Amino acid sequence: MKDRRIAYELLELYDWQGVERRLERRAAKGWRLEKIVSPLWYYRRAKPAQVHYAVTYLPNVGEATPRPDPEAQALDAVCTAAGWEKVCDWNGMQIFANEQPDPLPLETDERLRLQAIHQTLKRHWMGPMVILAVLFSLLFLLNLGSLREPGPAQRFAFALFLCGALYPIADLCLYGLWYLRARRTVERGKKCPSNHALTLVSTGFCAAVIVLFVLFLAAVLWQGLPGAGRRAAYMLLYIPAYMAIVWCLSRLRIALRERGFSAAANWGLVILLAFVLCFALQMLLAQFVLYA
Predict the structure, then answer these.
(1) pLDDT tens-digit map of 207-246
(2) Among 33, 63, 167, 241, which is most buried by a count of CB atoms within 10 Å?
């Protein structure tokens, strides 16, 4: 029986309640979270138990912030005194666990909770989402001409890029609407409303992208376009290779922060390597697969 488990969790950084519920369900089944190396979550086997999880946010502590961080250490000390054990952190999100039947809550001021969530997302989430929206929008515009070409493959490619462009735009807009509603709610002295519905929308977009990608590959092979087999092989190899690059760069970012590299040096090196590795991957697959 395996003692370790790796999962790709479709959870958003802003969905603190979704993270808490997911981890509590995992613990009840005998799996405890150990660490997060984006985009993968690592679990270890343990005795099934009713474990309470709590999420809080430190906007100044990101994935590249040098460790140990004084602000994070101060929070850990306070939480430990209250019976909460630090599990791990994820891009500003701090995750704690407590096995007591009725633990003290970590967050007692809903206004401060909302402020911390919003500041964390402004620092660590909104920028990448805007970049993703711009890139997919450009790909969508560049593929407008495919609508005039015959065959389902072109239509699926068009729909794939459209869905890819709409996902970050919809995510940003829905978060903005939730934030405005939540701010009005907490100003009236009420509890910060859940934003788990935003994660469900995000999951729907991810599912649509996967389905469209599979349909696109099937259409390329079915149409018998010139070099169809090579095109399909290129895309099937490119995606897992790209995900492997993302995982390796995440591991590198963690190693650099643990060795005290500044956030600027950390991100600079990671971004430089990302460009070099993605360019090399593109050239290798084009040379030996696409145009072989």
Answers:
(1) 888 898 888 888 877 776 566 677 777 777 888 898 899 8
(2) 33
